[in-house]
């Protein structure tokens, strides 16, 4: 592809390429190629460890993440590792169609089909099938969905699972089913709706749709996971209001409401989403739960927040486009590990225990990972509250973080019925137009139109106002100027309507940058936060180990570089 000068600002597709490095490096060549689950970067030397998530959950997330990262970035790194992940995943299935955790000589656990794992399994099989059309993948997925339906306990209006693990041959306790002792419904049923719905959309599998329908009814009508006011039930039986599984369930139900045209469901989700935002910072830090893990932010939770916000924004709640862009620019971008100078690593292999721990080349292997548990101002969370310091990296967050990049990248520019919308002011190429974003250095976005568009619109940040928005349109030698003062130019509250656009046209939109300081609260801790537009450019107090937001440079004129955007012909919609 021919290169040209583009702004040297955030490019989600490049971040996807960095994530591929980590998804490749986390593979353990001394233990069947299984990925390590966690990393501790604060020890000397840093280490990688295995855990009981190594199987369907970790493999599923890595397969899904690597496929999405390749679509964004065009990178080929780690193809042999991805092939091994795919091969391994297929060996975890038993005759009953479920994916089982395998024996590890270093841990005392028995084989079981964990219900959290099953979600990652069908997620990966769906993405895999969407990009390859492989009939063997569809066969495995169909058997898997049938098994998920078969083992569900079926009441008149809701379905559920009575335990977190299914044992080969049946549930561990028949009494649990008879007494309706369902464990956390969001973790084991609600989150499954998202990949099952997409699998139904792609294949028409009726079992998948049935599961979505009855799991959604369980969550909304009977479960008690969400309180009447939309808040999360913080009871011990509900995992203390665990944010990742709650937000993942909201994402799933929002998608189901949108797919079925159920406005009531979408409004139900929005009420809870709005409550959740009051517990998060404006830049995207989320609590782990409402009790012991409250101080531990998972990248997984942030990506659920991003995905739910996008679905709500697409279905009338357009204010959430701006909310999500702040999350993408700030805590998602900051949570990706790119600077490893602070990590102490060794090339020595003598202390490694296959299937348990490795100390070898940890920094090199994890570059591109996402934070497992982070503080609002630091990659590493080591507070005096809750559980103190735990994992710095978790492979679930690596897979989720990559998916978050893809959700932002794939929704930056969208098209529906001939109308093209620029939703996020981020660098992105497409078949319709390219977006050059000069933010946060300048309040400037340049659109390079690649084909005729019957209607083009661009979202203007709420802090930019409208009176000083300027539009310069260049069609060959013809140059016209406009302003945002015309009230008929604004649609859906935040979008500037540009009307028809012609192939070869260049449209420059400028607006004043807003600089402000906010006080952000995270579970009783306060942070003085400096903003330039939608970007955090400083935070106080600063972090201690690997500080966030302290190294961001801003210039009066955006730096430029040679580059080009990816425009894949096989982009998929998730």
From TrEMBL:
GO biological process terms on file: carbohydrate metabolic process
Protein's UniProt name: DUF1680 family protein
Species, as recorded: Cohnella phaseoli
